[in-house]
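FW: tagging you since you asked about this chain on Friday. Here's the raw sequence from the shared folder, copied in full. Didn't touch anything.
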Amino acid sequence: MKDMKWLKSPWSISIGTAILSLFLTMIYDYFKKQPMLSTVWQVLEKIWAFIVSVLNFNIKVWWLIIGLIFLISIIYLIDKLKQGETSNKPDFFSYKEGKFKRWKWTWNWEWNCYKNAWFITDLTPHCPNCDTPLVEGSTIYQLKYICPRCDFTAEDSQCDEAYKIERIILDNIERKRRGVIPS
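HL: got it, structure written out here
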């Protein structure tokens, strides 16, 4: 049954449908005693005639002006709606950096429309010596962060794990919302 998986792929379905319709057209032409593929040729001629008639349509200049004004006004309205969305960001949206445990951390917020929620993205630790974003250099057995500027290295037990920092950030937001000052 696993060998038949290719039958369910979109490519095989679309190509199979095209081949089946071509065979049905040939059978139709055969029974109508017409030359093979004459039905396909007639359909292609009708499509070509439609394209030519659309391209030869007489357009008045004032139609173009009104259409252009309409298009510009729609683009303007969409732009205003997008600006309205950006102004409706939550209070915590400007909260993008903080010092937790050993180091300064920075992050961004991203809206996930599927889950209808804000998520922390690009959570990055900074070097305690020169404030340069650290690079994660984990091995199989340990996590480590390396500063590309001053070669500061923090290994395993010295590292703050990102998932814990993310939890602290979310807890700080929740505490601020409740009126409890985060420590």
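FW: The helical segments are 10-31, 38-55, 61-87, 162-178.
HL: agreed, and The chain has a mean pLDDT of 83.
FW: great, closing this out.
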